[in-house]
Amino acid sequence: MMDDVLTYLEEHYERHLEDLRTFVRIPSVSTEGQHAPDVRRAAEWVAARLSSAGLTDARVTDTPGHPVVTASWTNHPGAPTILVYGHYDVQPPDPLERWDSPPFEATERDGNMYARGVSDDKAPMLIPIRVTEAFLQARGALPINVKFLFEGEEEIGSPNLGAFVRDHAQQLQADFVLSADGGMWRADVPTLTVSARGLVALEFTVRGPGKDLHSGRHGGSLHNPLHAISRMVASLHGPDGRVSVEGFYDDVVPVSPAIRADTAALPFNDEAYLREVGAPATFGEPGYSTLERQWYRPTLELNGLWGGYTGEGAKTVLPSEAHAKITCRLVPGQDPDRIRERIEAHLRQHAPPGVTVTFEESRHGAPAYRIPPEHVGLRVAREAIRSVYGQDPLMVGMGGSIPICDTFRDALDMDTVFFSFAVGDENIHAPNEFFRLARFQEGARAWTAYFEALARSVDAVVTATR
Amino acid sequence: MMDDVLTYLEEHYERHLEDLRTFVRIPSVSTEGQHAPDVRRAAEWVAARLSSAGLTDARVTDTPGHPVVTASWTNHPGAPTILVYGHYDVQPPDPLERWDSPPFEATERDGNMYARGVSDDKAPMLIPIRVTEAFLQARGALPINVKFLFEGEEEIGSPNLGAFVRDHAQQLQADFVLSADGGMWRADVPTLTVSARGLVALEFTVRGPGKDLHSGRHGGSLHNPLHAISRMVASLHGPDGRVSVEGFYDDVVPVSPAIRADTAALPFNDEAYLREVGAPATFGEPGYSTLERQWYRPTLELNGLWGGYTGEGAKTVLPSEAHAKITCRLVPGQDPDRIRERIEAHLRQHAPPGVTVTFEESRHGAPAYRIPPEHVGLRVAREAIRSVYGQDPLMVGMGGSIPICDTFRDALDMDTVFFSFAVGDENIHAPNEFFRLARFQEGARAWTAYFEALARSVDAVVTATR
């Protein structure tokens, strides 16, 4: 019954691939103000692509930040309705010198496409658009109702999507969210992600003297902000890797024995992992495995640390300030604001004499997310993946965060099912990000199967979500 | 008797000032390879300026690095001979955004000239050239023999000047070195510098994973190089500011009670100092005053620390590496190579599991320098300064380093007298470096007096240095 749709997807593959190339060439870096026009250009490209797929109401809506793109096809009253979520913004490409090909060209090598954002989330979000086009062109209708919501601020924590979702609750209402963002755990085994960690971000500055000083003349008599910040951030962890901030673990809901057993059963070993990432040893909170540390335990990581002279050669400066960026990943039970306050208090308390510490205005925070294991949307996902890969997907956690899940649940009372065909090893947020092009078709077949299977599950959907 | 020379200096002041403007507009940044042509241009400018002063043998000599400029006037057999030392290279201007006027224009405000290198060392080294011109043009002769040696690598530790001096020992031989580099302690009281601290520089990299990773996916399971480097560099000092590296203080020759008494008698108080530098408190090795910490005690200072994402906004990266630059200031007794080895051993020992540490190839090191307090060159300097400022200069130490002093003593058995008219508060190695233009004349009068007074001291010179 899906043959007409699958045939259409095969026949239009080259054109859809060219679409992807065009899409990734737009440097829609949401974190950097200078790229705001590119982010808008990407939004307009997405809206145009939705229109060309056959959706008549595609539109770009402004927010106080980057725009939101929406569209819908809702001509099956009574059928299940999903809200497809994805994001068209990307991370900065730094460090540029470590890319083997330019980040905003679409370079294809060995069956992969290399570009910033191709895996996170441009190729994955393009797949449901392709599938919608295939249904509408090959058959004139979708088997279910589909709404689309693509944002341009995922990489900066979705600061404006919450208000947008609340303001457009009626328009966006669906049985649940099907997220094209997320990603499979590994390339060799299909997986479904059932949880994501929360996030809290901090940035602070340590100031000593009012101006940069000559370290020969002044060294040894003033507190060097680089010494101070080192001591402060070093105090955030014990030597064993456990976070030392008072109360950091207080509200953590412990991992259940069942989840720990499932995780231990996954095909994973530290040696292969260390080869993959090129690190000499694993390191982290005692008493947990690597996967448990990545998925089910909270973390505190420095993402940036800088001060003084960082160029070529020596410069004998005692700098006036030093800076650090921190993000924490949170698990169920931890409140982002409370964690932030505890870290700020810790750093203030550990600021030595002779320096002052100031925090940047609070940015985004999001609690952790977990979907009920028997959710109908998960069951259908399992079925769709089995139809493409011939085996049941394994249930896994996700180390990263999708803060909008919390908004969807709070504002629209909808759960989120992650259904992405990116893979976690595709260098997202790093140089040489890539996407496996075979998954551009596998994903399209899986989304096709999902739409069909969900249409057959109308009773379960109604029972579970209405 | 000096009136003809002083009159000449007055009459040609505007032209000499224009020379200074031209000189500081050449961005002769020796630490950055891209500026090598500018450094050469500065050398050629200096040689041309020596020629126009009336010196017939001015020349630019290549080294494996930046060139050396020499010239001489030695037509008084039997009279004292000095070797005038200075440097025409400058520090990088970073951070550029903190300059109030462009670093390589000559901006004059409130009697000061603002430019990178104007105080360190372009205006001070131009003064003896002006004075030589004045003697030769007004009188047809100098009262003593003068040789000039200007290098272009002082800011990178003079890596090639040692070999140059050894290779040209005969040509450069003099009774002692009179250095136009150095600087007065304060603007309100004339001083003579009788010691300089030594220097050793290190740079190292801490590596964890082989590539930058997503801190959401991988955070908490690998040692983040930023955490590791923070812990490592924090371990270099105790909480009280004392250096924790084993053996760091072992070979230090203690400060004599006489020097401590002299230093305590200087017009200095911490409160005024803190207002000057804009810091909330002094901080450093217990048991010593601020001036003792700056002049007579060894230090270990971070000059740069960096890794991860340092741009606008957040980037959730677990970086593959982190970097630090360190310099130590040394005092008599400390061997630069031995101190470097001890610090490297400390850092290796404190590198936690899951990371590796590698050191950049060793750069320059220099032991501390101290001139005998009764040196004839110092006595003449005291006399020359008294003739301009009407009071005896105070004897002070210098926190910074002039590594070439050690070379002059080792290779040519010559002491170095510091005779500079820069002032220590002129933002050298920092944004908004400036030079007090009144000192462009005061210095010229003092150098004129020095030449005359040294000519009268021929017997003392012969006794002391031949």
Automatic annotation (TrEMBL), chains A, B:
Record Gene3D superfamilies: 3.30.70.360, Zn peptidases
InterPro entries: Bact_exopeptidase_dim_dom, Cyt/Met_Dipeptidase, Peptidase_M20, Peptidase_M20_dimer
UniProt keywords, alphabetically: Hydrolase, Metal-binding, Plasmid, Protease
Presence of the UniProt keyword Kinase in the record: no
GO BP annotations listed: proteolysis
Domain Peptidase M20 dimerisation: residue ranges: 202-354
GO molecular function annotation: metal ion binding; peptidase activity
Domain of life: Bacteria
Matches recorded under Pfam families: M20_dimer, Peptidase_M20
Name this polypeptide is given: Putative peptidase M20
